[in-house]
Amino acid sequence: MTKVKFTLKQARKYKGLTQDEMAKVLRMAKRTYIDYEQYKIPLRVDKAYMFAECVGFSIDDIIFFDPDIHFKCS
């Protein structure tokens, strides 16, 4: 059985927060948060935990990294 996972954007919207509000919660610039949400850069682990806590989801239920965008380790 496949477990449903939420993108950063879906989880943020579910919580009813704007990008600006989420950036403030994570103590970063709005532009930096947008880059994370668009998976241009991977979210740091400490920020990922803060994000999960803020939106009320388990860290396992959120997609923090898009392997199609980022290089894979070999």
What does this structure look like?
It is a single chain. With 74 residues, the protein is mainly α. The protein has a single domain (6-63), classed as 434 Repressor (Amino-terminal Domain), CATH 1.10.260. It has helices at 8-15, 19-25, 30-37, 45-55; strands at residues 6-7, 62-63. Helix 2 (19-25) crosses helix 3 (30-37). The longest helix is centred in the C-terminal third of the chain and has 11 residues, at 45-55. The chain is globular, with a radius of gyration of 12 Å. It holds the Pfam family HTH_3.
CATH architecture: Orthogonal Bundle
Quote the distance from N terminus to C terminus.
28 Å
Radius of gyration: 12 Å
The largest sheet is:
2 strands, parallel
Tell me how many strands there are: 2
CATH fold naming: 434 Repressor (Amino-terminal Domain)
Helix content: 40-55%
CATH superfamily: lambda repressor-like DNA-binding domains
Q: Note the overall shape.
A: globular
The chain-level structural class is mainly alpha
Give the class-level CATH name: Mainly Alpha
The low-confidence parts are none
Number of DSSP helical runs: 4
Number of domains: 1
What is the strand and helix layout of this fold?
Blueprint: E1 6-7, H1 8-15, H2 19-25, H3 30-37, H4 45-55, E2 62-63
Parallel strand pairs: 1-2
